[in-house]
Automatic annotation (TrEMBL):
<dbReference type="GO" id="GO:0002182">
    <property type="term" value="P:cytoplasmic translational elongation"/>
</dbReference>
<keyword id="KW-0687">Ribonucleoprotein</keyword>
<comment type="function">
    <text>Component of the ribosome, a large ribonucleoprotein complex responsible for the synthesis of proteins in the cell. The small ribosomal subunit (SSU) binds messenger RNAs (mRNAs) and translates the encoded message by selecting cognate aminoacyl-transfer RNA (tRNA) molecules. The large subunit (LSU) contains the ribosomal catalytic site termed the peptidyl transferase center (PTC), which catalyzes the formation of peptide bonds, thereby polymerizing the amino acids delivered by tRNAs into a polypeptide chain.</text>
</comment>
<feature type="region of interest" description="Disordered">
    <location>
        <begin position="83"/>
        <end position="110"/>
    </location>
</feature>
<comment type="subunit">
    <text>Component of the large ribosomal subunit (LSU). Mature yeast ribosomes consist of a small (40S) and a large (60S) subunit. The 40S small subunit contains 1 molecule of ribosomal RNA (18S rRNA) and 33 different proteins (encoded by 57 genes). The large 60S subunit contains 3 rRNA molecules (25S, 5.8S and 5S rRNA) and 46 different proteins (encoded by 81 genes). The 5 acidic ribosomal P-proteins form the stalk structure of the 60S subunit. They are organized as a pentameric complex in which uL10/P0 interacts with 2 heterodimers, P1A-P2B and P1B-P2A.</text>
</comment>
<dbReference type="GO" id="GO:0003735">
    <property type="term" value="F:structural constituent of ribosome"/>
</dbReference>
<dbReference type="InterPro" id="IPR044076">
    <property type="entry name" value="Ribosomal_P2"/>
</dbReference>
<dbReference type="InterPro" id="IPR038716">
    <property type="entry name" value="P1/P2_N_sf"/>
</dbReference>
<feature type="compositionally biased region" description="Acidic residues">
    <location>
        <begin position="88"/>
        <end position="104"/>
    </location>
</feature>
<keyword id="KW-0689">Ribosomal protein</keyword>
<comment type="similarity">
    <text>Belongs to the eukaryotic ribosomal protein P1/P2 family.</text>
</comment>
<dbReference type="InterPro" id="IPR027534">
    <property type="entry name" value="Ribosomal_P1/P2"/>
</dbReference>
<dbReference type="GO" id="GO:0030295">
    <property type="term" value="F:protein kinase activator activity"/>
</dbReference>
<protein>
    <recommendedName>
        <fullName>60S acidic ribosomal protein P2</fullName>
    </recommendedName>
</protein>
<dbReference type="Pfam" id="PF00428">
    <property type="entry name" value="Ribosomal_60s"/>
</dbReference>
<dbReference type="GO" id="GO:0022625">
    <property type="term" value="C:cytosolic large ribosomal subunit"/>
</dbReference>
């Protein structure tokens, strides 16, 4: 990630095609030892893919197809599970009332 972050910083700074030396310089400027093999791997993976904006746009399209999961799980829940969840919520609310600041003799914002 640190090499990608350095690449992104360089691009945002106006260097449209950062070299391995540029990335190494940024990484080492914060006191971290740079691995040239990892930098070469990053540059190889980005080679021929267009501008950074195009790469991000393509990634966003792929990311949009990933299911979020929450709706399918909630839709498949049984009514018994829903009742148990409601009971747990009520118990948590009652416990929160019992542990109020007033019982300790002072309030948090007094």
């Amino acid at each position: 990630m640190k090499y990608l972050a350095a690449y992104l910083l360089l691009v945002e700074g106006g260097n449209e095609k950062p070299s391995a030396a540029d990335i190494k310089s940024v990484v080492e400027s914060v006191g971290v030892e740079a691995e040239e093999s990892r930098i070469a791997e990053l540059l190889a993976s980005l080679e021929g893919k267009g501008s950074l904006a195009e790469i991000i746009a393509a990634g966003s399209k792929k990311f949009a197809t990933v299911p979020a999961g929450g709706a399918a799980v909630a839709g498949g829940a049984s009514s018994a599970s829903g009742a148990a969840a409601a009971e747990a919520a009520e118990e948590a609310e009652e416990e929160a009332k019992e542990e109020s600041d007033d019982e300790m003799g002072f309030g948090l914002f007094d």
